[in-house]
Amino acid sequence: VKKNPTMKLPPLFFTVMDKVQDMLENNQPLGRGCEWTAPEVDKINELIPGCITLKPTVYLVNCSEKSFVLGGNRYIKKIKEWVESHGGGLVIPFSVEF
Q1: CA-CA distance, 45 to 49, in Å (whole number)?
Q2: DSSP H or E stretch at residue 19
Q3: What CA–CA distances, in Å, run from 19 to 34, 36, 70?
Q4: pLDDT per residue as tens digits for the range 54-91
Q5: Would you give the DSSP letter of residue 77?
Q6: How many CA atoms lie within 13 A of 96 on its CB side?
Q7: How far apart are CA 94 and CA 98, in angstroms?
Q8: What ranges make up the beta strands (E) of 7-84?
Q9: What dihedral angle (degrees, nearest 10) is formed by the CA atoms of 69, 71, 72, 78?
Q10: pTM for the complete prediction?
Q11: Which tens digits make up the pLDDT trace of 24-58?
């Protein structure tokens, strides 16, 4: 974000937006890979409401009753690898059938 001398924005604006821009250009999720302070989180929520969340991501994976009882199926490992390669998150296998 370029500073414009005619604009009166707080320094926190530029700090936050520079971090956000850098992470998005590098295809990194904002909730991972950067420690945000409370004022920075407030600024992100103010500037980009409803667009970006800093909350952790949870992936629910539906399995058959048999797979759930056995602790997962052959796809769970591949799903966990995909989740880790795309920013991470918690993978929770469950069974609607069970």
Answers
A1: 5
A2: helix 11-25
A3: 9, 10, 43
A4: 677 889 999 888 888 887 788 888 999 998 887 788 99
A5: H
A6: 3
A7: 8
A8: 58-62
A9: 180
A10: 0.55
A11: 888 777 776 678 888 888 888 888 776 656 677 88
